[in-house]
Amino acid sequence: MMITTRNLLHVIVAFSAVSLLMSGNVVSVAWADEEQTLAQNAAAINSTTTSAQQEDARAQALAKQFKVSEARVTELRNQKMGWGEITISLAMAEHLSATSKTPLTTEQALTKIEQFRSEKMGWGKIAQNLGFKLGPVVSAVERGEKTIHTADRGAGVRMEQSTKTETGERAERAERPARVDRPERPGR
Asked: What is the mean pLDDT of residues 85-109?
């Protein structure tokens, strides 16, 4: 069989088509993995119960990390969103505002994300529609999870400190037992 330019061209076109189809499958698998990772992160963030002080501390910490107002984070929480979903929404909004071809504030991007979520779109589908990958979002959510845990610990410390200041006195230390006299050592 003689290889002609035309046959070679057909082989190249066929190979390119197969490559594109296969790379599309790889991308969809990667999207699914990243979306599953986001779901796991959200579940981990939502798994702990919180006190009112921790709720405030979390709102402050996320507002600071994602550069939005604390009132906006509280508003999302009042919409019955879990802390995991709030963190993912803020991470996606931050990434969208940073990568958008048209200038967007994080607030504007967050409104866009909320609109897609109200249409029952998953995180992967939203990212695909907006033209970005979920990898950077997953990283931001992981940082957000650490921020939340730090805020929770800080709220616990503040709770202990506020108890001391409410009474106006320091907590009394437990009295030490009297020192036991030891018999003198006999001389050598």
From this structure: 92
